[in-house]
Specification:
The protein is an alpha/beta fold and 531 residues long. The chain is built from 19 helices and 7 strands. α8 crosses α10.
């Protein structure tokens, strides 16, 4: 007899009382909310956030789509629901680029940047928590209440999901909407009413970030497979609703779709973008994305800085960034899930999205694969289908290990890496950018300098979107001064260390490491001049 059930487990299998399972759900989501809100309050702007916040303000106040066209407007509309609680000041005559817009809104218009950021981040926190419910319900449908709780535990304790779910960015919402669509398609097997709802979720993903396009073929195939009759009609319903959501998101910003932005032309296979049934700003935004993909970006992996991208970057980065217990449960869950009818709904979207992300040109963080801990959390719930007591004990132990590892990272989730790679303190030795240092600790650096190093000369190499002087940091760039004049404290963002040129490397080599901030910024002391 097989020790693995190939069918979805009945909900009564080893099921605790209903109130008990919902108590666990509430506890897990409350701890996740505390972790995310703490991070949202304490962290200063990451590199992408000012652009999104600025674009959200322009969308709300001026009903214009001209900023940040490479990303559709829905994610920024969601941020705007939080910003509606602030009287955001914006010069109507401002005409800079989107990076300058972000600085202008946060630091040059008399607004409180911390308050604006928090208001933009909180809707994303709420969405991330709601996606946690989707993870639980999806896994419960497939593997019973115990499987649902295992899946939610892995999701709610994931340092990467917590880190990016607490930011006003677009990666978690896109992944969460795609997961929701896959879940609703699974449910459509028994109730066709879920088909248009799946289309709504797919449309929300497409209206948030264009990378969701990679999942469209597999989700439409799943829509067709979810019904026994009228398969093409089922796929058409999902597709039409998704397209409608994209159109509505643009019309919600500007009912007239005013658009006069010049974008680079495309040719070859990319020209298909111009035939998609989306608004012109969406199609032109794809042109901008193609231009970004054609740039040569810098990567950093295990101490090596390189130009371009490496196809294996994301799997390796996930190996570093995921808790060890989660890695084991993901693999075991995928192995069990592969033998079950739900496999195409869980593993296929994740696999297609990962394959697409691995072909990208930007080796800048696991956020490009944030869907992996979401979908594989659902898969991991299937491990409870293995009818061996030792397996259930092992699952409980592995979840406990994930919990300990995640809680130890509090509140520094962005630079998390698992214990096999030295923990958050050593992530910067192997990864860079949004894996470690995305500019989030400028405020913490200001506090550290004020408390421990008052009055000292500061030389700063900061990689981020914040303005050091706003936080009271009076510093100069050491790369613009003769090396023998760089005395006092040398403060360097860890991403800048990873990409250091020969001049900065020499300055660091001649310094003594004395402190670090948030596992993302390193403080060195430069030697005093010889007498």
């Amino acid at each position: 007899m097989s020790v693995i059930s190939t069918r979805e487990l009945p909900r009564t299998t080893a099921a605790p009382a209903v109130h008990g399972q919902w108590t666990v759900v509430v506890v897990l989501l409350v701890q996740m909310a505390i972790a995310m809100v703490t991070a949202a309050v304490q962290q200063t702007p990451t590199i992408d956030e000012p652009v999104y916040v600025g674009a959200a303000v322009v969308q709300a106040q001026q009903h214009s789509l001209r900023y940040n066209p490479e990303h559709p407007p829905l994610g920024k509309l969601i941020m705007a629901t939080g910003l509606a609680f602030a009287d955001v000041r914006l010069d109507p005559a401002f005409d800079g680029d989107q990076t300058e817009l972000g600085w202008h809104v946060l630091y040059e218009s008399g607004n409180d940047p911390a308050r604006l950021l928090l208001l933009a981040r909180l809707p994303m926190v709420v969405l991330t928590l709601l996606f946690g419910l989707v993870v639980f319900l999806f896994a419960r449908d497939l593997s019973g209440p115990v499987g649902g709780m295992v899946a939610l535990a892995l999701y709610a304790l994931s340092p990467d999901v917590i880190a990016h779910g607490s930011l006003a960015t677009l990666d978690v919402p896109t992944a969460g909407f795609l997961l929701t669509s896959a879940w609703l398609l699974w449910r459509a097997r028994t109730r066709a009413v879920h088909l248009p709802l799946a289309g709504l979720a797919l449309g929300a993903a497409l209206a948030t970030k264009m990378s969701a396009l990679a999942a469209v073929p597999v989700l439409l195939v799943l829509a067709a497979l979810s019904v026994e009759r009228a398969r093409l009609k089922a796929a058409a319903v999902v597709a039409l609703v998704a397209v409608a959501v994209v159109w509505v998101s643009y019309l919600a910003v500007d009912p007239f779709l005013r658009w006069d932005i010049d974008v680079p032309p495309v040719s070859g296979v990319r020209a298909v973008a111009d035939w998609l049934p989306f608004p012109k700003p969406y199609r032109d935004g794809m042109h901008v994305q193609f231009g970004l993909e054609d740039r040569v970006w810098g990567g950093f992996l295990f101490g090596t800085h390189y130009s371009g991208s490496r196809w294996y970057y994301l799997p390796v980065a996930l190996l570093v960034k995921a808790p060890l217990g989660a890695l084991v449960l993901w693999l075991a869950g995928a192995a069990v899930m592969a033998r079950r009818p739900a496999a195409p709904y869980v593993l296929a979207p994740a696999g297609v999205l990962l394959a697409a992300a691995m072909t990208g040109s930007r080796d800048l963080g696991v956020r490009y694969a944030i869907f992996v801990p979401m979908f594989l959390a659902v898969a991991a719930g299937a491990v409870v289908a293995v009818r061996r007591r030792w397996v259930h004990v092992a699952v409980a132990g592995l979840v406990a290990l994930v919990a300990v590892s995640s809680l130890r990272a509090f509140p520094y989730y962005l630079p998390y890496s698992n214990e096999a790679f030295g923990g958050p303190e050593e992530t910067y030795l192997r990864l860079h950018d949004s894996n470690v240092d995305w500019g989030q600790d400028l405020g913490r650096l200001a506090d550290r300098l004020r408390d421990r190093y008052p009055g000292e000369r500061i030389w700063l190499v900061y990689k981020g979107a914040g303005v050091p002087s706003y936080y009271g940091i009076d510093a100069a760039d050491p790369r613009t001064a003769p090396p023998n004049r760089v005395r006092g404290l040398l403060v360097v963002s860890d991403s800048a260390i990873a990409k250091a040129d020969d001049r900065l490397k020499a300055l660091i080599a001649g310094s003594t490491r004395i402190d670090e901030v948030g596992h993302s910024i390193t403080i060195y002391r430069r030697p005093a001049p010889a007498r």
